[in-house]
């Protein structure tokens, strides 16, 4: 798994400055979940198999050291691939869906 909570920036440097000035803009969230498919026991396949056919946001909650980061996420692909050693894996990308600022609670 990897995730990011970036902020966009806008360069606003005036002609009277010798260094760059910036403003923080909108916040975002993205995530990539790496899974190994086990169709007899893995519930991840049941969740992600509908990615190509539905347009629903899914609540995705991360918990680190007792703090949670919950976001409504649109997962954009479910790319199953078989590795050279035989397991079926996927790296499932997701992006913020609803414009709510990602906030740790």
Explained architecture:
- The chain is mostly beta strands.
- The chain contains one helix and eight strands, in the order ββββαββββ.
- It has one helix at 43-48; strands spanning 2-4, 7-11, 22-27, 30-36, 58-64, 67-75, 80-82, 88-96.
- The longest helix has 6 residues, at 43-48.
Task: Name the descriptors.
105 residues, 1 helix, elongated, two-stranded antiparallel sheet, 6-stranded antiparallel beta sheet, 6% helix, mainly beta
Question: How would you sum up the global shape?
Answer: elongated
> Can you count the beta strands?
8
Q: Figure out the total of helices.
A: 1
Q: How would you name the oligomeric state of the polypeptide chains in this document? A: single chain
Order of helices and strands: EEEEHEEEE
Q: Determine Rg (CA atoms, Å).
A: 18 Å
pLDDT < 50 stretches: none
Q: What class do helices, strands and sheet pairing give?
A: mainly beta
Query: Cα distance, first to last residue?
Result: 20 Å
Mean pLDDT: 92
Task: Note the beta-strand portion.
Answer: over 45%
- Biggest beta-sheet profile: 6 strands, antiparallel
How much helicity do the residues have?
under 10%
């Amino acid at each position: 798994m990897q995730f990011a909570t970036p902020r966009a920036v806008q360069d606003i440097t005036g002609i009277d400055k010798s260094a760059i000035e910036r403003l923080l803009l909108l916040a975002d969230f993205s995530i990539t979940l790496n899974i190994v498919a086990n169709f007899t026991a893995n519930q991840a396949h049941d969740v992600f198999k509908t990615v190509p056919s539905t347009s629903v946001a899914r609540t995705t909650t991360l918990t680190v050291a007792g703090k949670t980061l919950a976001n409504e996420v649109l997962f954009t692909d479910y790319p199953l691939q078989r590795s050279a050693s035989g397991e079926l894996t996927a790296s499932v990308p997701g992006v913020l869906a609803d414009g709510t600022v990602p906030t740790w609670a």
